[in-house]
């Protein structure tokens, strides 16, 4: 048995995992953001609730472990930001600790028990507030030891013109320090940014999508431009990785017509000509972070021959 965690900015979710198909969520707890002692105490509470000694602990966290220094970048939870979190938690809690990025856990969940089942190479894409992703090959998370693989949201690559007729797109500055990242135009905040640039109107992404679904002309233009900007880097990602399926998670993945449009635009641009949808809605709608972390933990325990 292992205990997996999904550490979010507002809640810590825990779960007990005995197998790929036997993952049981535990009670949620608020995330202590500023006090590491309280953070550890909250984890202890989850482990106590599990009621038996786990073979290891695995975590899905909205942050990235630097593969060189092992330091975690997690801006929204200051008490763990910058820490060597796996080592710190192993010392505090006395168990083997695995830490993985939430987009990586999402990709793992989809590859093993979601829309990616049966595919050798699965690229999980997040279209939420921003843009993220994770890569699983032959059932293995490419970032199992930390790292930036799958981060198709970042890099100065957005086209200077997009849409039909083409309109000039500014190279918006991104939180990562670059300009013109997919993250600046591809998620909910990106749609809002594009809409403001194109029409001078500030609306929420929900409003823009709602208008788009009612065939509002301004919203149609915004979504057309967004799809045009996002489809090329996603097609390139498919060409590079050899992924044969791209399950999409995050809030925008719930807008099915948006994914249908994106899938068509992406498949127009990939080298391989797929005769079926490739960019598809995720299937692990409930707790993908918890499931993905659990799968990583179970895999680790299986390979290290601990008693589960
Ligand atoms: Zn960026």
From TrEMBL:
Chain coiled-coil ranges: none
Domain of life: Bacteria
Keyword set includes Kinase: yes
Keywords annotated in UniProt: ATP-binding, Carbohydrate metabolism, Kinase, Metal-binding, Nucleotide-binding, Transferase, Zinc
Reaction(s) this enzyme catalyzes, per UniProt: N-acetyl-D-glucosamine + ATP = N-acetyl-D-glucosamine 6-phosphate + ADP + H(+)
GO function terms (MF aspect): ATP binding; metal ion binding; N-acetylglucosamine kinase activity
Enzyme class: transferase
A Pfam short name: ROK
InterPro entries: ATPase_NBD, ROK
EC number: 2.7.1.59
UniProt cross-references to PANTHER family, sorted A to Z: N-ACETYL-D-GLUCOSAMINE KINASE, ROK (REPRESSOR, ORF, KINASE) FAMILY
Protein name from the UniProt record: N-acetylglucosamine kinase
Organism: Rhizobium lusitanum
Lineage of the organism: Bacteria, Pseudomonadati, Pseudomonadota, Alphaproteobacteria, Hyphomicrobiales
